[in-house]
Amino acid sequence: VFDNGQYRNAAADYMHLIPGWDHKPPSDFRTAARSQMTDSYDVIRILEDTNVATAQKTDQGIFQLSDEAGRTWSGKKLILATGVEDVMLDIPGYAELWGKAIFHCLYCKGYEQRGASAGVLAVGPLGNVNTALHIARQETALSKRVTLYCNGNETLAAEIVAGFGTATNMKTDTRKVKELVAGSGGQGIVIRFDDGSEAVEDYLAHQPPTRPRGNLADQLGLEKAPNGEVKVSSPFQQASLRGVFAAGDNGAMLKNVPNAVFSGHVAGQMASTQLLADLNGQKSLFPL
């Protein structure tokens, strides 16, 4: 197992959605998982702080990997669990408040910050009516009032208002965002606008675009889904190149820890299933 030490939820103080680990730091979860694997199974080796730089499949069907230090490894099957990285918006303060007062998943964060009002930053992937209102509806379960900040896009704001339906607790704001800063005492978030005015929210919801971490999938020539994830055969997690499996955010549209854990289990099982069938010259039970 190659672990480069880069994690998408590194900015989160605590995690949700995993039974037994609610409100625990993600680093504690990773440490416990690693210890349980290495303490109980002497066939597992974890190489920490290791960046795999190249990956290829030879004519003999063997996968060859090399890291940035020039070391090489080979194997019959390969599981890519390289994840994705969030592309921060070019708004001052956005990156600093990401995971602290700006949340991309309201099933992961937001409950603790619930209160009088919350905002949706309706730009980028949320810069359309359907997605913006989808997130706004989720916020209404946590906050009494929801403001959709359209960052100067008057057309989008009008389209969103037309889609409000019977909702009376939503509104739009078309002022252009200048910067984002932490609220008083580190609570909430202050949105400062180009005209010198500002607004305060308990939190903001926004989903930035993501991109695959690293380029191993491209080196292997794997097919991609429209959003850039590795295309896999459901539910087996096999990529377009036989012997390669993808697990976690790099092969899923819905990106969260439970889905990553589940797909990791499936990818590991299917890689083992395919390998054992190959070693015995037999056909796998599953279409692998």
From TrEMBL:
One Pfam annotation reads Pyr_redox_2
Q: Does the keyword field hold Oxidoreductase?
A: yes
UniProt keyword terms in alphabetical order? Flavoprotein, Oxidoreductase
Q: Where is the FAD/NAD(P)-binding domain?
A: 43-264
Which domain of life does the protein's organism represent? Eukaryota
Q: Which GO terms describe its biological process?
A: cellular response to toxic substance
Under the heading InterPro entries, the entry gives: FAD/NAD-bd_sf, FAD/NAD-binding_dom, Ferredoxin-NADP_redctase_2
- The residue range of the signal peptide is none
Q: Does the keyword RNA-binding apply?
A: no
Q: Name one GO molecular function term.
A: oxidoreductase activity
The family classification in the record reads:
Belongs to the class-II pyridine nucleotide-disulfide oxidoreductase family.
Task: Name it.
Answer: Thioredoxin reductase family protein
**Source organism (scientific name):** Metarhizium robertsii
